[in-house]
Amino acid sequence: MKLATFNINGINTRLANLLAWLKTTQPDVVCLQELKATDIQFPAKALREVGYDAVWKGEHRWNGVAILSRIGEPVLTRRELPGDPADAQSRYIEAAVGGVLVGCLYLPNGNPQPGPKFDYKLAWMARLNAHAATLLATGAPVVLAGDYNVVPTEADIYNSRSWKRDALLQPEGRAAFAELLEQGWTDGIRERFPHDPPPWTFWQYFRQAWERDAGLRIDHLLLSPAAAARLTDAGVDREVRGGEKASDHAPVWITLD
């Protein structure tokens, strides 16, 4: 099984890019974030025409997550992250596909910090860690894939000087991410690329970041022990970021035996 995560940054705006990538690389399962589309605006028909069934949760203008599959229709298990019934933002969806439980997440950015947006980010991470622990306890093969909006270490960014105040690099978010790994989750990209620097997954649109290869690693696939035991490869399709009207993220993927 080849499982990918891709912050598409507007699924209808970049539908042609997405379809071209799907046709070229044919991942079995894809987690999408930042759909920027309501449920009714989701392009299910176009995706079905290239062989993908989908479950999704949209939101007007912002957020939105989806799980695509070409190996059988995803069996939806959850459309929100537990822990806060009042949280209406579309940031988490979960489904069983091909014997693997897949959680697709779009973790809050948290900027500007300090402030309410950063507080929301940390609260969301605490909820994620609590839910992740319950998933681990099942012993099932689980993958938590998505845009975590966390640069885990200084090695995961080209140069942190101009990012010191950014919410993506704050110690509280890094500590919460480290706590996830300490639960027993395996970082798929780090497992495949243990030496520094790892492949970047995000290049901002400003200051010629792509042209300078001034990237960050914020898109992660975390594997439960049962899934990690099946990991055979991982990578980043960075060339997608260089395409016309591209997302500022590149697809990140793993393969499971």
TrEMBL record:
One of its GO terms (biological process) is DNA repair. The active site is at Y106, D147, H249. Probably binds two magnesium or manganese ions per subunit. The record marks D219 as: Important for catalytic activity. Gene3D superfamilies: Endonuclease/exonuclease/phosphatase. Mg(2+) binds at N7, E34, D147, N149, D248, H249. The record marks N149 as: Transition state stabilizer. The record marks H249 as: Interaction with DNA substrate. Its cofactor is Mg(2+); Mn(2+). Residues 4-249 form the Endonuclease/exonuclease/phosphatase domain. It comes from the Bacteria. Coiled coil: none annotated. InterPro entries: AP_endonuc_1, AP_endonuclease_F1_BS, Endo/exonu/phosph_ase_sf, Endo/exonuclease/phosphatase, ExoIII-like. PROSITE patterns: AP_NUCLEASE_F1_1, AP_NUCLEASE_F1_4. Keywords: Hydrolase, Magnesium, Manganese, Metal-binding. One of its GO terms (molecular function) is DNA binding. Belongs to the DNA repair enzymes AP/ExoA family. NCBIfam families: exoDNase_III (TIGR00195), xth (TIGR00633). PANTHER family: EXODEOXYRIBONUCLEASE III. This is Exodeoxyribonuclease-3. It comes from Brevundimonas viscosa.
